[in-house]
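User: Could you check the structure of this?
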Amino acid sequence: MARYVVARVDEIPVGGRKIVAVAGESVGVFNVGGEYVAFRNRCPHQGGPLCEGALWGFVASDGPGDARLVREGEVLKCPWHAWEYDLRTGQSWYQTARPRARRYPVQVEPGRSLVANPDDALLDLGYAKGPFVAEIYPVSLDDVYVVVEIP
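Assistant: Sure, the predicted structure tokens are below.
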């Protein structure tokens, strides 16, 4: 087994990384809480530059609106397709029981159905109609809007 000097200890601070060439391979060296680990800079999924990805933690949640990181700084996320790897073991992880993306109902509606009567809001604020009416020109609202409903 060949050994290669890749950095001084002070070159890679806690939470830091250094990507180096070793024996013709690109290798990322990480300082995880004072423990140094090295990865081949190639994601096993589709060959992306794994060691250039974000360092973060696993996301934990007890329900909607609750999200927190556990083991912060111990997860390497591939920049190509966001596969997550445990820096201590190299194991990839994903959540099967709880999908992270939430879907909302979406409808397409004509613009006319979305326009409120502005007079109602003014009356609610205590305004009264004045004696004059300015000349106006008709405007059509034929555009179509995308509407997202969030309960």
